[in-house]
Structure to design on (238 residues):
């Protein structure tokens, strides 16, 4: 499904290029072993003592420490590589940047002003805490459990919200509940033909417009747009 009203302008080498925003999304579940309690305790300390996550925050975690302290880390990566290969993405995962992230919910947002040239590929490592990833444009709600796998266009609005909630509300993430989610994320190059084909992306939809801009951004119906953090709906950029 191509959303013709949305256009991403993204860096391709040293020039901006235009593309459509892919409306397709891949999701599934892979077999991921439980992280050892010592590692989970380490994650919790990092979140509490360094990140100080507020409701809606998404922050990067130290990946190297997890790689050293989790004997099954490589097994998780292999499982994700097998899953993406089965989705028709070939070996694109192997050459993509990877990071470990933590969130305490997530406000509705898109990442097209920083990662317009990528698709996100996420593997969730935490247990089910009653949270969903919600894509308001398509209506997809994906329960977050250990092993949830998702590939989506970075320009698609998305959020992590309470199961059953209609939008993001900071009150749904009280301080006395551990509602943090840990996930591995890869930046897949959207210009790779297998990625573009899977997500339904078309390129050079506004070649003239791309030459007039100086930074990555997303436009809707001919004007720069932003996402409402509570509802996920598009509106004019400030």
């Amino acid at each position: 499904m191509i959303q013709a009203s949305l256009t991403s302008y993204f860096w391709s080498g040293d020039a901006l290029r235009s593309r459509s925003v892919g409306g397709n999304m891949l999701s599934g579940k892979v077999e991921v072993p439980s992280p050892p309690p010592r590692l989970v305790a380490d994650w919790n300390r990092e979140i509490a003592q360094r990140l100080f996550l507020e409701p809606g925050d998404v922050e990067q975690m130290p990946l190297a420490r997890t790689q050293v302290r989790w004997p099954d880390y490589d097994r998780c990566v292999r499982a994700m590589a097998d899953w993406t290969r089965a989705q028709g993405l070939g070996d694109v995962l192997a050459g993509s940047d990877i990071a470990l992230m933590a969130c305490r919910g997530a406000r509705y947002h898109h990442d097209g002003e920083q990662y317009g040239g990528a698709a996100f590929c996420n593997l969730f490592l935490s247990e089910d805490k009653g949270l969903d990833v919600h894509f308001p444009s398509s209506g997809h709600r994906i329960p977050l459990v250990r092993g949830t796998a998702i590939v989506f266009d970075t320009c698609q609005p998305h959020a992590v919200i309470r199961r059953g909630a209609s939008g993001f509300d900071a009150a749904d993430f009280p301080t006395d509940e551990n509602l943090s989610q840990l996930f591995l994320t890869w930046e897949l190059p959207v210009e790779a033909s297998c990625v573009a084909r899977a997500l339904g992306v078309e390129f050079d939809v506004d070649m003239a417009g791309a030459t007039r801009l100086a930074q990555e951004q997303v436009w809707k119906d001919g004007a720069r747009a932003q996402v409402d953090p509570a509802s996920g709906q598009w509106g004019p950029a400030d």
